[in-house]
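Class prep. Sample record?

___
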Amino acid sequence: MDQIKIGKFIAECRKQQNLTQMQLAEKLNITDRAVSKWETGKTMPDSSIMLELCDILKINVNDLLSGEVVKMDNYNKELEKNLLEMIKEKEKADKRLLTLEWVIGILSVLVLLLPIIIASYIEMEYWLRIILTFSGFIPCFVGVFFALKIEQVAGYYECKECGHKYVPTFKAVNLAPHMGRTRYMRCPKCNKKSWQKKVISKD
């Protein structure tokens, strides 16, 4: 998707509705800085407010993602193109998130091990050694929590039995036995348990 084109289109539609960036921002309960970033093509509107934004600007989502008012004879073609672009963008974002998961995981382990190593090799009071040893646990658990959350939402898990691809609940991911990113979970479609691999695409 052409963010610059979309940004200019948002600005044009906003002006047609006689709204300032501040007024549009107030209607959406966001900052005028966020609106400015859209209009300069730096960011895209969040999916959670796209429908409300389109309603205010008197356009539809297909128009917004196309960066222009789509004529009816090209409507289905543009809609398909925009959907494919959104899928590609989600896949790229998921790949970045899964890379971030590894980074968070490695840093969490280092945060846990570093105080233990220091407490083991440097002379200090016994009570200080205990505090230092346990000081890495809280940031480590926080890091692991975020890593698990990323693994849950980024991409899909594919059922080995029926091939269904889905996003499991955080509880299911957290409690499932696993080997790397392959987890032993129950499929919500066929209701069978299997070792399910993490995949990026739903196709």
In short: Residues 92-153 form one domain.
